[in-house]
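Dear support,

We are seeing what looks like truncated structure output for some complexes. This example has three components. We would appreciate it if you could run it in full and send us the complete token output so we can diff it against ours.
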Amino acid sequence: MKIEFTINGKKAAWDVAPDDLLADTLRAHGFLSVKKACNTSCCGLCTVWVDGQPTLSCTMLSARANGKTITTLEGVQMEAEEFAKILTSEGAEQCGFCSPGFVMNVLAMKKELKNPTDEEIIHYLTGNLCRCTGYMGQLRAVKTYLGVNSAQ
Amino acid sequence: MSKKVIGQKKPKIDGMALATGKPAYTDDIANPNALVVKLLRSPHAFARIKSIDTSRAEKLDGVEAFFTYKDVPQTRFTLAGQSNPEVSPYDRLILDELVRYVGDEVAIVAATDEKTALKALKLIKVAYEVLDPVLDFEQAADNPTVVHPEDNVHLNFEIGMEKSKNIVATDIQVVGDIDKELSKCDVVTEGVYYPQAQAHAMMETYRAYTYMDPFGQIVVVSSTQVPFHLRRHVARALELPMSKVRVIKPRIGGGFGGKQTVSGDLFAAFVTYKTGKPAKIIYDRQETFTCTTSRHAMRLKVRIGADQEGFIRVIDLDVLSDTGAYGEHASTVLGCVGHYTLPLYSKMRAIRFVGHAVYTNKMPAGAFRGYGATQGTFALESTINKLAHELGMDPTELRLKNIIREGETALHWEDGTRLGSTALDRCIRKGKEMIGWEEKGLRRRVGPHKVRGLGMAVTMQGSGIAYIDTASAEIRLNDMGDYVLMHGATDNGMGADTILAQMAAEVLETEMDHIIVRSLDTDYSPYDPGSYASSGTYVSGSAVVKAAENLKVKILEEAAHYLEVPVGEVELTKEAVHWVPNAGEDRLNGDANPKPKAVSLVELAERSVLGSGKNQLVGQATFGSEISPPPYVAGFAEVEVDQETGKVDLIQFVAVADCGTVINPNLARIQVEGGVAQGIGMALYEDVKYDKQGRMLSDSFMQYKIPTRKDVGTIRVAFEESYEPTGPFGAKSVGEVVANTPAPAITEAVYNAVGVRVTDLPITPEKLFMRMSEQNS
Amino acid sequence: MFTIRELVQPETLEEAYSTLISRNPNTVLGGCAFLKMGSKRIGTAIDLSSPKLGLKGIREEADRFEIGAMTTLREIETYPAFQEFYQGILPQAVRDIIGVQFRNSVTVGASVFSRYGFSDLITALLALNAEVELFHGGRMSLQAFLDKPYEKDILVKVRLQKNERKASYQSLRNSVSDYAILNVAVSELQGQWRIVVGARPQRAKLAERASQKLSELAGENGALRNNDENALKQLEDIAKIAAEELAFGTNMRGSAEYRQAVCPVLVKRALMEVLK
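Here is the complete output from our reference environment:
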């Protein structure tokens, strides 16, 4: 079946099977920032924005992207670089495999929450697993990025 | 001498690319037309394949190849990432008639796409003769079931294997007279501990992409920690000449020891070898949980004897280790239980270590950050905490009284090695201060049903494997005055490429962006065992420092020659080599005050590759060590226990590490924080569980809970630097030692809070609740 | 591996329903969070996300809230009125489910219609005495829906009366974002109490005897609100009744024995919070 939608600001029309999942479809079309790691909708690595909302692309049927606006990390490179500079200056990207989904969720959080507390930041990002960092460096980076660093 | 690059918080050289989502990992760079390889796996814990019918599957459009045990070479091999010749039994075939755990491979399918490959798997009909499995590792020895009945298991060394009893390896060390010394002790404390199997749960699952290059070489692009060992295993398993296999390691999405054991690579390589076509294998999360490796589950019986003043005189350790269906790291992990715990304390008069590793019909155990030290530390440190209670001593004081100091030796080190560096005493003192040990007290009530407790533990590890780990490095002065550093340290996310570049830059008086780091391609990179045994900073780092020094000498010589000055009087800077004459002395041409002169590095480099110079400068070095200097950590936990439910909340964990000189404070800190988080997972959440038939239940992130960012409390880290005289810039390792203290420190904190000592991990609410109830009744 | 032969996005519920019942393998899609974990072979997958169906979002009427089936759990979590109503138990019940992205995907309709035993949402909704509206089956209490045998239908919306109901949600989890070992929701409206226990691990159930006893007790005297030992003892007795009248089972997260043992703790805590 054909879906028509917007991907990173551009109109697209792709052929997909009814049981294709968006993460696979995006990777097949070269949006390789999208990573998959769990198959059970609980690691957050495949996070993309659907109509601006952070969503698990490995959980969403590609067919349901029809008419939607999809954003991957490739589509928000300027914002991503701004945050990535801070994240890497903490060394908190480590292996980097969870970074794209994490960065997408951090950027979404920035739009949604104003002056969040530590608890609010942690709550918003709980669905992003990371096995390398122990999360502390990520928190330091996010707080610097959001300019809420005074607490620590 | 002040350092310019060492000790600086340099970002990882690949960081920006990774954090902005650039294609860098195996599946990002695989040929999109590669065949998709999927594996049919055994549903039984132990069975013999009677027949396999692939006829229906083969008719499926898009299926390109099928292989069963009848199609594969019959040379047994190991998948262990260990130096050749491995201390591991060669007990595997690519596919075997006998399947030894639920998930063991039965058939290989290669198809043009994933959906077809998965469909094909469903159409294969296999008849099994189901055999009685041995699932309980405490029942493995003397069991009627023999996991490896075949008679062609090969051993490179005598490792105490008794195959008919399912014993893979035996390790015994006795120093002194245990019974006599125990009888002299005022206090003898005992305990039996069951650290569980733990999943690595790296975010990038196991994967490889293979192709045949125009020279007939099989190229394996793999998410591996051990490219050179992988190359050897592929060649052996496929019965190919070594020169026909090449391994490339791109960016890796975490390993933690998991990728020190080869996984699906062989199947893809076999498909490429047979079909000539590119192939790709990606283990899904379920396969990663159920069909790779985990930490060894163990039973450790500990006896510790001490005198009244609190000097620990005897440690008696009896270890039973569950290695599962194959023996990759059975012997070495077992040995490390003792190697990385017994030398912590130096006032001992007798030690005994008796260890057995056994086969069972479960997923193989393998290497995992901490490598036996984690399990050993849990058992030993828990018992020492118990001893402190029995002696009525503060556990920190008990440690300070007994820990090994610089210049001392340990009973365990029978060669008389003396310790070169330790700051563990400072780590303990600093940790106490950070967590508020004195002010808070070990137990305090914070609510009607909430009690907080403090607990601590110390640990050590090694830095590389003495006498075995040997790394090489090369640094070349490129034609335009920049450098390329070639090494094999196999960065899998922790930043080895970055800290090695820091070391090279420091020696070569340059900045990091003047250095290209290339790693890893077994055809180009100098040999390195890979990323394991905490060897990156110490072993590979030493090789890089020596290679850089080697190049620096060559540059200075070449420049002195060119400038026609004595080599002892030239200095290397970022841009040039300068001759700085000592004023007033009689110099060349008899000039009393010669003018300084210099040659730019660019000019020197250009000359080296032109007809005039004809001498491209390359520094090379190989480094191996007769010792494995231990890094140390003192870990402190503060927990809050809900007495009505048994739920434990970790409030904070303080880890103070001595890794010698800290090469990169940011990356070292993240190593500690990340390792502590894994240790917290082991203490409180993570558990590899099986059902009664041997099927793993914890096969997803839904059923196997690694800590989320809400589960780790606050992890606070500090460093107390020592100076390791044999290390690069005084550095030791940091990667593994950091995972060991959370389990014993948290269990002790829980004990202090509610009086229950949990000896079988993890401390689930149910376990604690039930034991508190038992205690109260 | 699941398969879907065809996917349709109907624009009327009639069309959706007739597709659903026309062939056995036809299925309504929710947020699909669990779809890929199974090996379901779906004929026609029915996607109800067309805006024309109006199933997404929360509508506030004078006397009630109507939560459309395609409303996500994240919308429940952040909906302003739900922060205040029922002492905020709806956001509390869903906030620890995996993560924001997950809750942006999964829907109220699928959560309720699937009657998952581990559901946090059902426990809270049941305590709030919610109603469901099914396309074919019509309006009924959530309780009646849960008791009814499974039948193909389309859940259109969940209805909640706007009132002064006070409530508390308690759950016991080991890892914070894990499924609950046990969850409890309690509510009180005009002296009538509802004590609901879920993740037993069977699906949420009203503890009828305990609820009734408590309602009687609360009606008899106001002493329950006294923060004294006698009141506490009475609450503990009620909580024990709840644990005794309900059945508990064993799964990976906990044994029946443990669930039964901690049930009174969670019930007591919930009661105390409502009485506060």
